[in-house]
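Honest question from a wet-lab person: if I give you the sequences of every part of a complex, can you actually get the arrangement of the whole thing, not just the pieces? Trying it with mine:
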Amino acid sequence: MTLQDNFENHSKQYIFCDDEFLSKEREKIFIKINSNNFEKKNNESLKNLPFSDLNSFNYFFHVLDDKPKSIIKEKNVYQVDIVNGRSENYEDENIKIRNIFSKDFDKKKYVKDNKDNDIVMDFNKIFLNSGFFLTVKAEAQIKIHLNHNTKKNFTIFQQNFFNFQKNSKVKIEENFNLTENTINNIKSDFKADEYSSIEHNIFQKFTSSNKLFLTSNATCQKNSSFKQFSFNFSDGFVRNFHYAKLNGVFAKAVLKGCFFLKDNNACSNKTFVSHNAENCESNQTYKGILNDISKANYFSNTFVAENAQKTEGYQLSKGILLTDTCAFFSKPELRIFADDVKCSHGSTIGPVDESALYYLRSRGIDKKQAMKMIIASFIEDELENLDEDNINKINNNLSNYLNSV
Amino acid sequence: MKSETTETLDKYAIDKYKYGFVTDIEADRPKKGLNEETIKFISKKKDEPEWMLLWRLNSFKKWLKMSQPEWANLKIPDIDFQDIYYYSAPKGFEKKPKDLSEVDPKLIETYNKLGIPLQEQKVLAGVAVDAVFDSVSVATTYKGELEKLGIVFCSISEAVKSHPDLVKKYLGSVIPPGDHSYSALNSAVFTDGSFVYIPENTKCPIELSTYFRINAEETGQFERTLIIADRGSYVSYLEGCTAPQRDSNQLHAANVELIALDDAEIKYSTVQNWYPGDEDGKGGIYNFVTKRGLCKGKNSKISWTQVETGSAITWKYPSCILKGDNSIGEFYSVAITNNYQQADTGTKMTHIGRNTRSKIISKGISLGNSQNTYRGNVSFLRKSAKARNYTQCDSLLVGNKCGAHTIPYIDSKNNTAVVEHEASTSKINEDQLYYCRQRGLSHEEAVSLIVNGFCKQVLQELPMEFAVEAQKLVSISLEGSVG
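Yes, you can. This is the full assembly:
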């Protein structure tokens, strides 16, 4: 179905269609895209994703009767199920969750909020059908299991808003249980208040008929810390675009990710850290392994504003190509306007290290096993801060991936 | 009490651009503006054959349909292409002087001011010089000696007439006129430049050199350089540029094409010191240059070395297409921007052949209110088995009003190719500064020493006579802006 068909047939069914402002904004964006009035050639948001893939889909969404649950599994550990974009409203002394309404949208922000002419975000705005607010209250120290469950053929266009209040300490584990033929276009805003500390681990593993476009914007205030780790073992297309703004002094952002591609799968990754205050630190690291005819890209960007002195910003991108038919593109950017900074980036793309392979084989290890060992060690650094359950989960997925290599 | 920064800034205010003199010579120019008539005028002045005129006119047609490239990290004011003189020759140059004694003594004086005493260089340095003044190549030294070896070193206008087969075959083969709007513009109106052909198995015994100078006001300089190194040959080519100090902006859009056949090597060095504009950003040259080398044959090598200190706006990406197996591309660059200068410069290494290798070393230094961007593209195509690239780009920031940006594009489609890229941005190391100051150096001397050390990896790639000049230029560019 074309964009026009989807828009015309379903525009009266969207939630928030009662809001005049949102409806007008949606129409504006729809006209822009439908009339092809946007940059396609150098548009980073479309890299490795043909516009036609984005444009033609069958819009399908309705609110189910069986309500999702938000429960406490054990003390300070929460499980929040998101079924087809909807969650259960819930509140206790640590946490508050509720679904969004049209009046929740900051209209100015809604209009302006589109970085780098991101077409995927334009689609998110046009078809927006779900989302929730999640507030972690001040001083809370909790762990949240966030499970996205999307039923067959559903198309989810979601905007979520997380607020971590002062001194909170949170660990979020986000999982995607996507059934079949789903589209998940999800944008999450993370607001980290002073002295809060957030660890956000994302596990992406689903079949090839599903697509996931995950965008996140973190805003960090004074002395807060936001650490994100994404692991992509999916057979379907994944777009990981993650942004962080360091607005308070001594704030810290870590955006890391690993992806493992095979067959004709593709993935698109981008991280962007803006340093807007003094003494902030950032680290952007993405590592990928590509097999068969898969392709991937990674755009990383460190921006340092004029007043953001004493900044430390690091970027690293590493890719291993296992066949001569896969392709990896990386663009590590530094844009620096302050002089007292330490910023660097490194990027490597190549095959598995021949000398390491030789070393292992000369000690009696067969080629396949040696390859597995080298690839496992390639991502070892990124696992050091994870707990045992997560490490086991990643190792199992990695082992499955390596068996297919 | 005045701070050290203020003192040195004051000092810089007196330290003006020393190449900013104007030579008062009557010039021969067509009407302003770009149209078919202008192109026909240039072609007629150059006494060109019909095929050359047609080539120019075709390029002009392409230019008409193209818009200026907009992707660079530059703020380029609108350029009125109809408000530029596309040809300016010192009067009486239709008939070229046979030797230096026939050249206008004022011109010779100009070159002496620039520090290029042609006579002296002929004898002492052994450098063959082709000096291009506005649009006309003034004199080519050492021509006779080179001819004995079969080396052709002449102006491109002369080569069009004397070596039409070579020019026809290679002109536009590396930079097609339709590549982008500046290459189309240059192809339509190029006025002069150098042509070099090194025959098989010949090592050019001396370093070939060109000095470019824009003298006349409101004049664009569009030189075209074509260097062909035949099998097993070697040539080192030097290029220097200056312009007078004027309030208006002048356009410089050059195209340089290099072709290296089997086992040939070309080393191309540039010291670019066009007038950068005054301390408020008024005036200066818009330097939009396309430089591209083709390593066509096996085991060929092309090496670009550049020291970029001048120009109000620099838009320049000397590139290598590594087509022949085992070919090598190198790029060494120092780019210094001060006051309101803007530079978006870097390189493009396209690996096509097997075992091709490339190395990129780029050093950017930003001072004052300037913006300095490194933009590089390294791509490995499917057949570039065992290819390798190493890139290092470092930026140094002096002051918090300037910007240093690094934008590399890395694309690999071959699983045996290896690319390694690293970049860093920082300020001058306090410990190094302290060490130097402790040993009695002034703040400015210490900074100059550290910056020269920072650039050394690139400067040492320059031929000796250029290295000394470049080192001085680096120091001059820093004067008054450190603290």
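Two things worth pointing out. The first helix of chain A runs from residue 3 to 10. The radius of gyration of chain A is 21 Å.
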